[in-house]
Amino acid sequence: MNHQKIKELISSYNDGELNQEQNKKVEKHLEDCPECRKELEEMRKFEEVMSQMELKKPPGEVWKRYWASVYNRLERRIGWILLSIGAMIILFFGGYKMIEGIIVDPSTPLLLKVGILTALGGIVVLLVSILREQIFVRKRERYKEVEK
Q1: Overall pTM surpassing 0.70 (yes/no)
Q2: Which of 7, 37, 84, 136 is 20 to 30 Å apart from 95, CA to CA?
Q3: What is the DSSP string of 4-52?
């Protein structure tokens, strides 16, 4: 193999990605070529330095600002709205299936059907609202760590 081809393989050699035949050729070349030996040595030093580095973790204040930003608050609110709507749809559908016999019965007056469906909708909205409120309160309860 020529010098340029070996230079292209040095990184793969260092990472242990070459087959046995390529390894032997690179090692033979390294014995005779100080330039490639130096490049391999620099690569290994660089990897050693990089392995000792860590990404700096952002301080708590950065996270506070992040969560206080309008975008993140809006994102959370939209998530809660979508979750609430989804829960309401599921609960309403389940409730509808329970009373479907009454609703599809042609002898049941329309006003009664509307009243039943409206009441069912109200119950579902209130149930989801109460659940959301309880989650909100539990997350923000100031005295949960206090023992009696």
Answers
A1: no
A2: 136
A3: HHHHHHHHHHHTT-S-HHHHHHHHHHHHH-HHHHHHHHHHHHHHHHHHH
Longest dimension (CA), the chain: 100
Q: Pick from 44, 47, 45, 8: which is nearest to 25 by CA?
A: 8
* Cα gap 75→63, rounded to integer Å: 16
Per-residue pLDDT tens over the stretch 32-65: 888 888 888 999 998 888 888 887 787 878 777 7
Distance from C-alpha of 5 to C-alpha of 137, rounded to nearest angstrom: 67
The residue type at 20: Q
Q: Where are the domains of the chain?
A: 3-52, 60-140
Q: Which residues contact 120 (CB under 8 A, 6 or more apart)?
A: 92, 95, 96, 99
Q: Torsions phi, psi of 81, nearest 5?
A: -65, -45
- Distance between CA atoms of 100 and 89, rounded to whole angstroms? 15
Separation CA 146–CA 148 (nearest Å)? 7
Cβ 94 vs Cβ 57: under 8 Å: no
